[in-house]
Amino acid sequence: MQGADPAASEGHLARMGDVIVRQRITELFALDRPLTVVRGPSGSGKTVAVLQWAHQLADDGITVRLFDGQCSTVDDLQVALDRLKGDDAAARVVIVLDHVESWDDWPEAEIVRALRHHPELTMVVCSRKHLPWFTAAELELDVARIGMAELRLTVDEVTAIADRAGLDLSRGAAAAIHTSIAGMPALARIGLVTGSAGGTPTWWSEGRVRRFVARHLMSEVVDPAERVDLRRAAFIEHLSADSLGAADPGGSPHRMLASLESIGVIDQWVDGREPIYWMSALIRETLKHDLDRVDVGDLDVLHDAVMATLRELGLPHRALAQAVAGERWSSVEAILDASGWTLLTSHESSLRAALRELPEHMRSGSAIARALDDAIAHRPPRDRDEHTGAWTHPPSDVEARLHLETIGVVAGRRAGMAREIFASSSSAVELAAQALDASGPEHLAAAQLELELGITAYAAGDVVAAERRLRRVLRSSAGAHAVGVRHEAASILALVSTVVGDLGAADRWREESHELRTSTAAFRFPTVTMDLVDTLMSLESAALPVRQAGRDDYSEAPEVIRTWATYAETRQALAWGGRLQALHRLRASRLVDPARLPETAGLLNVFEADLLLSLGRGTEASRLLETVPTGNLFGAVSRARLAHLTGQHDRTIDILASLTGGVHPFERLRVEAQLLAALSYERIGEAEVSGALLRRAVDVSASLGLVSPFSTVPEEFLRSHEDRVPSLREMLGDLRALGIRHPYPDSIGLVRLTPREREVLVALAHGSSVDEIASRLFVSRNTVKTQARGLYRKLEVSSRSEAVAAGHVLGLLHD
Questions:
Q1: How far apart are CA 342 and CA 336, in angstroms?
Q2: When comparing pLDDT for 440 and 92, which is higher?
């Protein structure tokens, strides 16, 4: 060391030969600045950077004096400063102070005076924390600051550290290491692991770094009283002065900031800005899990306090992240409900991250969570800038309200509350009606809300209201931006008309949908709904090609569409074959919760029951139909068919009475009910009533273009009436042209077991002996034998194996 003062105890200016030189750091030091403060925690590389710069100066002949607090004292510094007094012509001198945080009685006045009056003097101080005299020096001197923002490694520097040690890292591996350690230089080196002592590193270990952080930094650097602050901070998702204060309202903000700064989590040494917080995942996990003996109190209270503060500050995306991290699911739902639209429009990335973390019960149980997730998944690309992902046109307050109402309607419908949502939608209806007269984005948002109200009305069973809403969309929506909504409304109207049986109207809506789809080349419209319409219409007209329906084709469609895709597949299987395959696919894909979506579950049960009736499995069909809501018109027709096939013709007529002549929009079901009632009246000898119903069915079908309902009764019955109802001959010809067959047997058996008989049957199927069954049911052997004989009589069998086989065939052993 040049120019060393023998009276002062100085440190040795050691070479840092095994450490990479970060030239970008050394270039930050300047001789023309009187004072440079390098502030960072242990392991930040501050000493290495200063010593590398100092060696460059020493190699150029400049005197460098190092005072290391581990071997020097503040008196040694005082001696060096005294030597400068009165020596104006002294040569350039650089004083480096390191590890001096424990020094007391700083001669701050002498330091400032020496630096101000001796331009040849430059001082560099390395410190883990703020020293009292820094403030006074900044008031009178040009002080340079170097903090963690500059000291943190780059990805290239991580690669260079590993390369110097002999480990070749890929760019991806280096980036992963850089992220996990938040750029701390010492942690990059510590993580290098050798296969044997003294050998070349063969990998980089996070576990090794975690152990170092827990054992060294936590035990040697941070005081025990401050470890609570560090561990509490680890549970805060987004560190800030506000969130830290909320996490420890009775604590000391200054102490907490100092604690975080001591291990590099926070950088307060930032000119004119808020402190920078760096909490890498590795540090966070270390603080959470490797300091379990540090008690931070009730974590639920901590999460709730931070979350409440963030919500008060108008930061719902931060509050949402905190609620998810703390698994405070009721709070998550409250935030989504209150700020769903704000999150969707302004903080979509945060919303995406939160939705990915939701547990299964939130995904299936939270209507608003599902709606927001769906809104993100189906975000129209034209609403977003392709480079930044930001909204191209931020919504107005009215547009935001319209979108939020739309989310609420969709969420309620998907939660199985279509009837409730539609019944209580007066505010949404009024808002949509007012905004439909507007133009631009507000008009488009209103049209979208009106569309969802129409779909919800259809899901609630109010076909008339659904058609009215959907027609409003088509009448009021104009302009290129509304074409997509109009196309969807026309497609849904075509589907509604097809399901209810008005094929003339369905064809008109189908044509309008096609015109809208081809009118604007810039838009690519989904055709899934129209594909389904074509599938259903191919059952009525030989002019249309047969389309095979499969639910896989509709996996991305709205839930209403998926339900009717199952309906289409069922009708095709009944008409043209493939009933067993359709039955197996329906059962395999049954994911609907009956408690949450009773109407949808009821419809799917009806479709399955129809397939079972066509296969002669009446007992299974009967059990399914018992779960269908009584107001379900499709279920009523299936119940009537079951009664007819089991010889209960009077009951069939009673069930169909309201369907054949009542007020409802389902004309196809009306025709099917009239045909089945006509068949039942003939079976009980009421020929005139039967003929009248048959003529009404033919007249309605001819006006609507329906053919397929006539396949639901035997062809022999229809041929027997050709002379009295001439149009039947033409109808039968159309059925033959379409290749549609009558799918149901002439009759089926229906077995009804008592609960005890079913228990005995299940036990027999499990191979239990009579003694085992008696013990399980707490009855005598003779009672079991008596119950088994009664079971055999009902099943018309004579042995255990035949009883079990019959139980499987009849569905008595199915859950």
A1: 9
A2: 92
Lowest-confidence pick of 7-16, 348-357, 718-727: 7-16
Through-space distance between the first and last CA atoms of the chain, rounded to whole angstroms: 89
DSSP codes joined into one string, 593-623: -TTT-HHHHHHHHHHHHHHHHHTT-HHHHHH
Give the pLDDT band (50/70/90) at residue 307. very high
For residue 408, what pLDDT is reported?
Answer: 76
| Helices 426-435 and 397-414, axial angle in degrees (round to 10) | 140
Q: Is the pLDDT of residue 496 over 70?
A: yes
Q: Count of CB atoms within 10 A of residue 388's CB? A: 8
Give percent of the chain with pLDDT exceeding 70: 83
Cα–Cα dist 690/536, whole Å: 28
Instruction: Indicate the SS3 state at residue 146.
Output: strand
Q: How far, CA to CA in Å, does 154 sit from each of 157, 184, 185, 662? A: 5, 10, 9, 77
Residue-level pLDDT at 411: 72
| CATH code for residues 593-738 | 1.25.40.10
Distance CA 313, CA 480 (A): 40
23-151 against 593-738: fold identical: no
**Token representation of residue 16:** 């840092």
- Residue 759: its pLDDT value, please? 87
Provide mean pLDDT across the span 436-444. 77
Q: What are the structure tokens assigned to 714, written together?
A: 């035997």
| Of 150-159, 214-223, 413-422, 641-650, the least confident | 214-223
By CB atoms closer than 10 A (0-12, 13-18, 19+), residue 454 is buried
Domain 755-809 CATH class label: mainly alpha
The CATH number of the domain covering residues in 23-151: 3.40.50.300
Instruction: Give 677-690 pLDDT, tens digit per residue.
Output: 999 999 999 999 99
**Contact assessment for residue 666 and residue 682, using Cβ atoms and an 8 Å cutoff:** no
Sheet holding 143-146, edge to edge: 63-68, 93-98, 121-127, 35-39, 143-146
Interior/surface letters 4-21, b for 16+ CB within 10 angstroms, e for the rest: eeeebebbebeeeeebbe
What whole-number distance in Å separates Cα of residue 655 and Cα of residue 633? 10
Residue written as tokens 């800038």?
A: 385
Between the alpha carbon of residue 12 and those of residues 1, 16, 190, the distances in Å are 8, 12, 24
- Report pLDDT digits (tens) over 523-553: 455 577 888 888 888 888 766 555 555 444 5
For a pLDDT cut of 90, what percent of the chain falls above it?
20
Burial, 241: exposed, middle or buried (Cβ in 10 Å; 0-12, 13-18, 19+)? middle
Domain layout of the chain by residue ranges: 23-151, 397-537, 593-738, 755-809
Distances (CA, A) of 547 to 487, 566, 650, 737: 21, 14, 38, 16
Cα gap 270→126, rounded to integer Å: 16
pLDDT band at 394 (very low <50, low <70, confident <90, very high): low
Residue 503 CA, chain-centre distance (Å), reads 39
How far is C-alpha 744 from the chain's CA centre? Answer: 44
- Distance (Å, rounded) from C-alpha 788 to C-alpha 255? 80
Instruction: Say if strands 276-277 and 201-204 run parallel, antiparallel, or are unpaired.
Output: unpaired
CA gyration radius for the chain?
40
CA 220/CA 262 separation, integer angstroms = 11
Name which CATH class applies to 397-537: mainly alpha
Residue 607 near residue 566 (C-beta atoms within 8 A): yes
Task: Assign 3-state DSSP to the chain and report helix, strand, coil percentages, each to 5.
Answer: 60, 5, 35
Beta bridge partners of 391: 384
Q: Give the whole-angstrom CA distance, residue 575 versus residue 709.
A: 10
CB 533 within 8 A of CB 569: no
Regarding beta strands 276-277 and 266-267, do their DSSP bridges make them parallel or antiparallel, or are they unpaired?
antiparallel
Total count of residues recorded for the chain: 815
pTM of the full structure: 0.54
